[in-house]
Structure formats: structure tokens, C-alpha cells
Design goal:
six-stranded mixed sheet, elongated, 6 strands, alpha/beta, about 15% strand, Uracil-DNA Glycosylase, subunit E
Length: about 170
């Protein structure tokens, strides 16, 4: 009988190769193949796991007018900058929704002037429609500057914010 065709029962391998047998519990990629999450600059404290993504090409985060408007929106929703993380997509471009999820672990993501496609999301939705995806709620809307200057867009945004933050309509 040739040793090339000898088959051992599985329970013997552990005792024969005590120091040489490696058990792999999960597939670990070599460092050269790992995709590193991009570190995203943000404004705020992210205490309530809410991410606002804006699209301002002229400022690091937002201009003064849009910042005041954002603070007014947050106040209306009983939130502060400490509760959210605000990211300027143009300032930190090159990230996608997995990067946002990895860094911020958000429950809610509100996108102003940024499309689902730009974040590599696998769906497209109309403005002001609530979309659930991977245990997160998404809302896409026009930019803060557009909303700020348009009364009808403000109404649509407010109706959407009431839904996502469970704000009771005042009578």
C-alpha cells in the first residue's frame, strides 16, 4: 500500500498537527487588500447618530446664511449641532455610504443637494421621500441654499422632518 493514497480520519489531524495546524475562523484579507474607510471631516457631535450631508463648493462646511438656516431647522426639530454630524460632500468627496456608516453609525441620513448615486447608494428616490435601507432612514432633498430661498420647498422639507423625527403637528 502506497502512503500517497492513505486517508486519515478527520479527528486525527488535531492530534498529529498540534502546533502546525491553523484554524481560520474568518477570512482575513492581507493588509494590501483591505479597503480602508476614508476619514470624513465633520461638524457637530453626532450624539443622536444623525448625519446631515450638504453640498457647498465654496465653504469648508456651510456659509453663514446656510449655517443659520441649518440651526433654525435643528431648533425646530429639538436638535442641536451636538446631536448631529454635518458633512460637506464637496469638501470631503470620495466617500460613499459605507464610509458614512462605518464612521458615524447613523440611524438617519439627510442629504441636501447630494444624490443617492453620488454616495453609491443602490437606489434613487424623489426629493422628500423617506427611504429605509440597512436599518437607516434616508431623505434626499435640494441643497440648503435652494430650500432656504423657496417657501414651497421649505414646506415640503418641514413635512418630511416631522415624519422622520416624529414631530407632532401644532394646531
Amino acid at each position: 500500500m502506497s502512503l500517497d493514497k492513505l486517508q486519515l480520519p478527520g479527528f486525527l489531524y488535531g492530534s498529529l498537527f498540534k502546533k502546525n495546524l491553523v484554524i481560520i475562523k474568518s477570512c482575513v484579507q492581507p493588509d494590501s487588500l483591505k479597503k480602508e474607510s476614508k476619514r470624513i471631516n465633520f461638524l457637530g457631535g453626532n450624539k443622536k447618530k444623525i448625519v446631515f450631508i450638504g453640498n457647498d463648493g465654496q465653504n469648508k462646511f456651510l456659509g453663514d446664511d446656510q449655517m443659520k438656516f441649518l440651526n433654525d431647522l435643528l431648533n425646530a426639530c429639538n436638535l442641536t449641532m451636538a446631536d448631529i454630524a454635518f458633512v460637506n460632500f464637496r469638501e470631503s468627496s470620495g466617500f460613499s455610504y459605507p464610509d458614512i456608516s462605518d464612521q458615524f453609525h447613523p440611524d438617519k441620513i439627510l442629504m441636501f443637494g447630494v444624490s443617492a448615486k453620488e454616495l453609491d447608494l443602490p437606489f434613487e428616490i424623489p426629493f422628500f421621500q423617506l427611504q429605509n435601507f440597512q436599518n437607516q432612514q434616508y431623505i434626499i432633498s435640494p441643497s440648503l441654499a435652494e430650500i432656504q430661498s423657496n417657501k414651497e420647498l421649505k414646506k415640503q422639507l418641514w413635512a418630511c422632518l416631522q415624519k422622520i423625527f416624529n414631530i407632532q403637528k401644532q394646531k
